Fold this sequence. Notes:
- By secondary structure, the chain is mainly α.
- It has a single domain (about 25-285, about 310-529), classed as MFS general substrate transporter like domains (Growth Hormone, Chain: A), CATH 1.20.1250.
- It is built from 21 helices and no strands.
- The longest helix is centred in the C-terminal third of the chain and has 40 residues, at about 335-375.
- It is globular.
Amino acid sequence: LETAVNDVYEAVVENDEDYDNEEHNEDVVWLREQRSLNKGTHWSRRPSVFMISVIAFFLALANTAGEGNRQIITLQLCCNYISRYSLDGHCSPVDVQSLMSNLQIAVSFVVSCITLVAAGKVGPMSDQYGRKVFLALLLVMFLVGRLLKLWVMSHFEVLQFGLMIACDLIGNIGGGIMCISALGSCYVTDVVEPHERIYSLGLFLAALLCGLSAGPLVGNLINSWASKIDTVHVGNELVSRAVDTANSINKRDFLPMKFELVLLFTLCLFCVFVLPESRSERARKKSRSLSRSELRLLAVPSDTTSSVLGFLRAINFLHPLRLLYVPAEYIPSSDPKRIRNTRIAALLLVVMDSAMGALVFSFLEIFILYGIYRFNWDQRDVGHLITLLCGTRAFTLVILSPLINHNVFQKRMKLRVLKNQFDMVDFAMAFTGFITDAFGYLMIAFAPTKTSMFIAVCLSCLGSMISPTLSSAIPKFYPDSKIGEVYGAVALLKNLLSLVTPLALLSLYKWSLKKGFPNLVFFVITAFL
């Protein structure tokens, strides 16, 4: 299936002379040799977009299968916590939302801090030791974190603020969902040619989004099956109780979360025993050699000082950020103006990509909280939101984005794809995405009903073509031997922004909620875009 898709894609894309005239440096030659070797390998042992997409799909599915139940149960625990200290034994929706917002702010801050460290080390180290080992670490820690969170939520009747944060911290030690995007982008870049990169990255992101959209559907099926067995607990009872009184939680509400654990365990086995490594041994050795050479450049006459500098560099997770200011040796020109323009272009692309990534993760929680407050959503509505959100993005990446890219911008408007610089195709795709994204957020702010909000959310998702466009444009400014470190720097900047973005947006939402203007946050983001 993957071969057929790539053949179709190659038939659509016209040959560009820039690819034929490319300077064949050592990194490019090794990568192409490895890709040629991969074509003769059996599909089950061949590193491919399909293999990493399997990881992305099932990880995303496991992440969202129990998300609706997890959100509603957390709201119930918040209500129980408030009710315990109230005089009438009840909790108001505003108090529950405020406590839930505080929890999400704390979780976002702590998770961003831990993934910040992971993102800074995983990218460059995966260049040296391969992508597979860090994918396995990410999955194992995510499994452990979800297991501990299920235990905490099922063994306490009120919200355990500190333990909930600790569970998310442990689950993201390997990088979490934020780093799967960076590692997956590295994996895809290793196994496909540059002219296939936008579409292949789009397929990978589409697999991630399809998993995110399929997860709530699977969770709803499990909930329906559980409700038929449990004749005492019916439909929306948990939600209606969660906003006004303290109640215990039915054990069957944890079934989707238990399904997540089974799926994550299976995925860990697949990653360890089936997933092939994408980076060749020669490329890994060269990256390790370059790393040792950089360490030797830091050497000074004093052995003690040299050891200290080497240790500080080893633990410096911010080190990849230096690549965002493109080194002069990576720019094929000695013209100062060309060097300055190249650095500005690369830096702007990284900042835009990082900002949009931070916004996507931050707004999912706001969508859910806003829908529960404004339209009285239950866990099924939360599941429908996630399904529509991710399904529309997957449709955009797999079908709509390639059609707009090739049929409109390349064939009709005659825009050319360039290998070593940000081109007009990249600009047109990104600009279109920003416009549709902003219009969608504006419609959400004015949405009067649940259905109209769902439609507006789908419209905003048409802007998802921004991510693969920027992600494929950024590596154009760097050599192939630095791809992992570059994507690590991007993930690092995303996490830096994630320290501020959720805190700012959730604080704004909580403040506007108390002022009776809960949709203010959508107007602010529309103006920003």
